[in-house]
Amino acid sequence: MTISVFIDGGAGTTGLEIRERLAGRAELSLITLSDADRKDAAARKAALNDADVVILCLPDDAAREAVALIDNDRTKVIDASTAHRIATGWTYGFPELEPDQGEKLAATRYVANPGCYPTGYLALLRPLLRADLVPLDWPLTVNAVSGYSGGGKAMIAAFEQDDAPDATDTAFRAYALSLAHKHVPEMQIHGGTNHPPLFAPAVARVYRGMLVEVPLQLRAMPGRPSVVSLHDALSAAYAGSQLVSVHPLVEGLTTPSIDIEQVGATDKLELFVFGNEKVGQARLVAALDNLGKGAAGAAVQNLNILAGLPETAGLRL
User: Fold this and answer.
1) Whole-angstrom Cα distance, residue 243 to residue 10?
2) Which residues of 94-127 are buried (b: 16+ CB within 10 A; e: fewer)?
3) Which of 23, 59, 116, 210 has an alpha carbon 20 to 30 Å from 267's alpha carbon atom?
4) Tens of pLDDT along 86-144?
5) CB-CB neighbours of 10 under 10 Å
6) Quick one: average pLDDT of 252-261?
7) Residue 314 located in a structural domain
8) In Å, what is the CA distance from 162 to each residue of 38, 157, 168, 289?
């Protein structure tokens, strides 16, 4: 028995990456629409209702409309937009977030794919919050940089086409200076903290890749947690994970730098703990592909879980 999948918005950056990961998988059958049928409401509704699993790669409003078009009680939905990430009735699609998150995903019908920045942030913080190493009311800061593909077709054109309306040759651009980025509520709610983190994102002149960093002033924190205790908590949380790895602590003494393309075009998530016990400071760093574990790879991982298939099937390891 094959599982039918319909990618609504499959011509976009994330949709194309998902299609690549599903190609050649005999246990799945992909429902596709012609260019004309994609614009036909009846054909699109039929595809949404015929599929066993629908993956939405759409703007927020369009994603909500697509969900409303599904009028059966069996089709499962994975939404890659931000529309449902903190919505009631939706399960957050980060299988490694909590010890029982994978079980929750296997039992649900509606999955909200995580944002790329929150994936790195939550992977670093949740184990430390659970272990009471970081207080829930601690003022957290997130510094992050992404490849320009994270901005979709318009940003890709701006960086790659000289005649694009917003063409740019900048090397590095800080943004979200209003401190109201759409990922912040997702970070706070799924992190379980009392306050939103101060989020400082940026985009660099590189197509894909991402670094997410959480700096900690350990000497000012209750109990003054050690760098070793932070690393131990992260290592224990992801022991046995096929996608999330924690680099040895000694690398903090020998690694001079981390590139934004640390994991390449894979679906892996690599975590680092760098610290200096003498000054009581630590830098927690997550490296991922914004199009991999930050988007398409996460969607395929969630599809595998919903369908009862091997969790890493089709993923780039």
Assistant:
1) 24
2) bbbbbeebbebbeebebbbbbbbbbbbbbbbbbb
3) 59
4) 999 999 999 999 999 999 999 999 999 999 999 999 999 999 999 999 999 999 999 99
5) 19
6) 86
7) no
8) 30, 8, 8, 25
Q: Which of 66, 116, 142, 218 is catalytic?
A: 116
Q: What is the tally of structural domains in the chain?
A: 2
Are 154 and 277 in a shared domain?
Answer: yes
What span, in angstroms and rounded, lies between the C-alpha atoms of 120 and 102?
A: 18
Per this entry, what is the length of the chain? 317
Nearest to 271 by CA among 238, 317, 298: 238
Among 150, 146, 314, 315, residue whose Cα is nearest residue 243? 315
Q: Answer yes or no: do 256 and 189 share one domain.
A: yes
The answer as to whether 315 is a domain residue is no
Please report whether residue 86 resides in a domain.
yes
Please determine, for residue 69, whether its predicted confidence score (pLDDT) is greater than 80: yes
Residues with Cβ within 8 Å of residue 290, at least 6 apart in sequence: 116, 146, 147, 149, 150, 208, 209, 210
Express each pLDDT in 165-216 by its tens digit.
Answer: 888 899 999 999 999 999 999 999 999 999 999 999 999 999 999 999 999 9
Which residues form the domain of 39?
3-113+294-307
Is 228 found in the same domain as 128?
Answer: yes
Regarding whether 255 and 237 lie in a shared domain, the answer is yes
Would 313 be classed as within a structural domain? no
Q: Does 57 qualify as catalytic in the annotation? A: no
| CATH code where residue 73 lies | 3.40.50.720
Query: What is the Cα–Cα distance from 272 to 287, expressed in whole angstroms?
Result: 8
Residues forming beta bridges with residue 212, ordered by sequence position: 144, 286
